[in-house]
């Protein structure tokens, strides 16, 4: 195999920027050139946004698995998915050091208080992802022994599937990141301006008010 050396594209620009930086450090840049240099390189933001940016790009998930979904969760740190690309690979063995609880698998009624205790031991701010059908809606094991995660703790993101692929979990974590950064997408609510998703009450003192619940006894949405 023949190896050929080629100049890097944009190498000239890089050299020009280097010289510009040198002039700036020496105090040789003045007037318009200095203004342009500053405008191109200085970024202003708020402390809240900077903190959210740091938090959203460095989740520390708890080392915790419940059932078959946990196998998929474990694989997100492997070479194929490599969640380290986003900064979420540092799984912590103590709730004191973790800020993300991934509920990966079915939750039995016996296990729920244990999970709740782990969640309570995590320091604020903290987030939770419900991974898989079992955890969100009891899935194929929909019986008296299981409980959905929403019933005993707050959940930020639900990842559907049985099991969800590692890609789906990564997608869920990225959606959580958007939420932490305050840039979450509203999806269909945005596309359709949420028109047609509310029930309209036409009687009593709530006349004309749009709400998101059904009338008592109305089972149309059940
Ligand atoms: S959703 Fe499927 S893979 Fe996940 S715990 Fe339930 S049965 Fe297992």
Architecture per CATH nomenclature, i.e. the level-2 architecture of one domain = 3-Layer(aba) Sandwich
Strand fraction:
5-15%
Span between termini = 66 Å
- Which range best describes the helical content: under 10%, 10-25%, 25-40%, 40-55%, 55-70% or over 70%? 25-40%
Task: Walk me through the structure.
Strand 2 (127-131), helix 6 and strand 3 (157-159) form a beta-alpha-beta unit. The longest helix is centred in the first third of the chain and has 16 residues, at 11-26. This protein has a three-stranded parallel β-sheet with strand order 1-2-3. It has a two-stranded antiparallel ribbon with strand order 4-5. It is elongated and about 75 Å long. Helix 3 runs antiparallel to helix 7. It is mainly α and 222 residues long. It contains eight helices and five strands; from the N terminus they run H-H-H-H-E-H-E-H-E-H-H-E-E. It binds iron/sulfur cluster. The site of iron/sulfur cluster (SF4) has 12 residues, from helix 6.
């Amino acid at each position: 195999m023949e190896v050929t050396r080629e100049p890097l594209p944009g190498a000239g620009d890089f050299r020009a920027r280097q010289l510009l930086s040198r002039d700036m450090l020496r105090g040789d840049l003045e007037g318009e050139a200095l203004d342009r240099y500053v405008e191109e390189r200085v970024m202003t933001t708020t402390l809240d946004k900077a903190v959210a940016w740091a938090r959203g790009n460095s989740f520390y998930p708890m080392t915790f698995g419940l059932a078959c979904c946990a196998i998929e969760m474990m694989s997100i740190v492997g070479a194929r998915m490599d969640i380290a690309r986003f900064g979420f690979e540092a799984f912590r063995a103590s709730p004191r050091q973790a800020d993300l609880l991934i509920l990966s698998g079915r939750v039995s009624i016996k296990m729920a208080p244990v999970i709740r205790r782990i969640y309570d031991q995590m320091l604020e701010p903290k987030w939770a992802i419900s991974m898989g059908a079992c955890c969100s809606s009891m899935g194929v094991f929909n019986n008296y022994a299981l409980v959905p995660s929403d019933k005993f703790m707050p959940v930020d993101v639900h990842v559907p599937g049985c099991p969800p692929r590692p890609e789906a979990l990564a997608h869920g974590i990225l959606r959580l990141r958007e939420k932490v950064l305050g840039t979450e997408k509203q999806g269909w609510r945005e596309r359709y301006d949420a028109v047609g998703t509310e029930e309209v009450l036409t009687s009593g003192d709530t006349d004309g008010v749009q709400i998101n619940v059904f009338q008592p006894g109305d089972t149309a949405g059940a």
